[in-house]
Amino acid sequence: MTLTTQLKEFRDMTMNRMPQSIIQSFNDGIEELKTNRLKENALQKGDTIPEFSLKDINGENIQLMDVHRSEFLILNFYRGGWCPYCNMELRAYESLKKDFEAADSNIIAISAEVPKLAAQTTQKNLITFPVLTDVDAHFMKQVGIVFQLNEKTKKDYESFGMDFTQIHGNENYELPVPAIYVINKNLEIVFVHFEADYMTRIEPKEVLSIIKNQLQTV
Question: In the predicted model, what is the mean pLDDT of residues 85-95?
Fold first, then answer.
């Protein structure tokens, strides 16, 4: 089953049992992101990704060049292990990890959830590539993919038991838009997938195909 099919089935099931008011709130949030032109203002293909210092699941500092060992590096920005759509996506990339490695590319996942929760995300999804924490979303803000939850959406998440002060270790109430960035050895961005609708993701096999095509031009 493709990732797209999994996401659609889960979305349909969830929407059928979720209160209409909350569905509307989440849809309004998606439209707000589109109106704010976050996608257009984020780093684009041809830009250079900034250096970063992130935390691994043990709380150790990880630099960009610690994980960028191949021709290409895939940066998978996810919302958190609490997000079922993100978990499905992470597992899909894990299932193709050897294929990506054969295409001379590595994968890392990045969120703002604290290392303890990133470790849980790693364990429950059986992830073997690095799952890293961007403290206070500092790096993701440089990339330009971070937004702040509005008061209505914040209350909706709280009604589901989501305490972002504990998840992120701060009171910023900021989330990244799920995004895939692929960079080359020169830290140049060669591909971007940015989707305001967090329930929609690009197929990992499509990313793999794009990387294979990029290899032909190296």
Answer: 98
The CA distance from 80 to 178, in Å, is 10
Nearest to 99 by CA among 209, 3, 179, 202: 209
Query: At 72, is the secondary structure helix, strand, or coil?
Result: strand
Domains of the chain, CATH where assigned = 3-215 (3.40.30.10)
Q: Tell the burial category of 139 from Cβ atoms under 10 Å away from its Cβ (0-12, 13-18, 19+).
A: buried
Write the CA distances from 29 to 81, 156, 177, integer angstroms: 20, 11, 11
| No. of helices (H) and no. of strands (E), the chain | 11, 9
With a CB cutoff of 8 Å and minimum separation 6, the contacts of 178 are 77, 78, 79, 85, 86, 89, 195, 198, 201
Question: Is the entire prediction scored with pTM above 0.90?
Answer: yes
Would you say residue 218 has pLDDT above 80? no
CA count, 13 A, side-chain hemisphere, 74: 33
Nearest CA to 75 out of 136, 140, 172 is that of: 140
Kindly report the backbone phi and psi dihedral angles of residue 125, in degrees, each rounded to the nearest multiple of 5, phi listed first: -100, 0
Residue type, 197: D
- Of 200, 162, 194, 163, the C-alpha closest to 86 is 200
